[in-house]
Amino acid sequence: GSLCSRVLLLYALKGRDSLWLIHFMVRMLSYDKPRVQDPQHEKIITVSTNGSIHSPKFPHAYPRNTVLVWRLVAVEENVWIQLTFDERFGLEDPEDDICKYDFVEVEEPSDGTILGRWCGSSTVPSKQISKGNQIRIRFVSDEYFSSEPGFCIHYTLLIPHHTEAASPSMLPPSSLPLDLLNNAVAGFSTVEELIRYLEPDRWQLDLEDLYRPTWQILGKAYIRERKSRVVDLNLLKEEVRLYSCTPRNFSVSLREELKRTDTIFWPLCLLVKRCGGNCACCHYTCNECQCVPTKVTKKYHEVLQLKPRSGVKGLHKSLTDVPLEHHEACACVCKGNTEG
Asked: Which of 18, 34, 120, 237 has its CA at a distance of 20 to 30 angstroms from the CA of residue 281?
């Protein structure tokens, strides 16, 4: 029969279940409509470094009746884009193992291939890598149920280095411009993976040389006992602290902090204690307050240093200790004044 006759039949049922059945019938009859139309207005994101996109209100419940499309386009043409899903993933559950209602979808723009469509919350989607320097992401939620936390996708630039046939024009990683190599280095999570990428033919020898003790390392790291532990930034979650003018963790770029544009460090960033937060307790006569450090200490961090070799090809690799300032105590002071 028609939709009207089915709804009237369901109204004849009594109790709360009749409303649920009406809701279910309307939803099933409307499922035949196209789920995702070809996007007329997609958001273009120019990718020159790592970043992320997420469902609206992540990590809280996303809005209903929403269609969003992102196209990630790398600035360089000879790079790939890798997508990594955050562990906090949850969309409306599938029906009969098919994502019919709410889902996130990844497409390869070069040929229109759908790399995957995901929903539910039982498993986190696997990593996805583009075939070229572009990739498209769609998010769809229908007009009924929404879930939380939604999704967050981290994107990373990769430099292709595994090819079926070596191209004479392809440069080894160590010969790439430092800025491009700097972006590639950010995608690795261990020193071994990085050395294997930089030196695929002799990475084991390089790794042994790297960890062979020398008097310089022993002198700083073990005699002075001032080196602080390097934190794995990939495992950290960014949190907002609601305290006024206190030491807190900041991610600091070593190249910017040390003003060394001729060198690459790994990890690219380290966590340091720096003063931050609003000054809510300044004297009423002060028009502008500043959160400044009142106690500063210098700590040494062991990092991997990559520098171009003078006059020859390749990179010089060494473990070195870099000094970074850490703020141990902070206070609010008036601008141009020493009193709080």
From this structure: 237
